[in-house]
Amino acid sequence: MQRIMKNDTVEVISGNDRGKRGRVLQVLPKKDRVLVEGVRYIWRHVRPSQQNPQGGRVQKESPIGASSVLPVCDSCERGVRVSFHGKGANKVRVCSRCGGPIARQD
Ligand SMILES: [Zn+2]
Hints:
mainly beta; 6-stranded antiparallel beta sheet; two-stranded antiparallel sheet
């Protein structure tokens, strides 16, 4: 089970976007990175296509290191470290600060 999952709300704890919060759009486990909505905007230079006949520059999120973000606990209302409880299918993520569950958002 991963510490961070798609659709989690996470808080950025390092880098230029420190303190920002956003929703996880994509988890890239192999690269240990996550794509977070509204975080680390970069300009992408795109060729003209049918969707975008003009081409040109498009602003887009780029992935940041998974260790730079913390899931936000609803009760603590801040980014927290998580621990795991239970085994197998019953394994859940809990907030290591208040012990409350960190629910999966589908
Ligand atoms: Zn908590």
